[in-house]
Design goal:
Blueprint: E1 10-18, E2 21-31, E3 46-52, E4 58-66, E5 70-75, E6 80-84, E7 89-90, E8 95-96
Antiparallel strand pairs: 1-2, 3-4, 4-5, 5-6, 7-8
Length: 105
């Protein structure tokens, strides 16, 4: 599928807890290896993340981009967020961003 739809191609996934706020967990994922300002997210892809820790805690969330312009994410604990891409979105128990970012590597 990634060859026919490069926006479905996960490149990197990084997850970490913020050192000065252990209640905040960050997941950063890159998709589409050669994205440019004209590249759009696919509306046929659901980006799903399954987080499990050694203590038995689990959190699942998924995100979709609707019509290439609106991000909607929901989590297994009832958390949700939605709004336009290229904006930092704050919702119920989730913050999200989808869009082009500079890769330092």
């Amino acid at each position: 599928m990634a060859q026919s739809d490069p926006s479905a191609d996960f490149n990197d996934i990084n997850a970490f807890v913020i050192p000065n706020d252990p209640d905040e967990f960050i997941v950063a994922a890159t998709v589409h290896p050669r994205a440019t300002a004209g590249t759009r997210f696919s509306d046929a892809v659901s980006y799903q993340f399954y987080i499990d820790n050694a203590a038995g805690g689990q959190f699942v969330f998924s995100c979709v981009v609707e019509a290439g312009i609106r991000l909607s994410c929901s989590g297994s604990n009832g958390s949700q967020v939605s709004g336009p891409i290229e904006s930092v979105l704050s919702g119920t128990g989730l913050r999200a961003y989808a869009g082009l970012r500079e890769d330092p590597f």
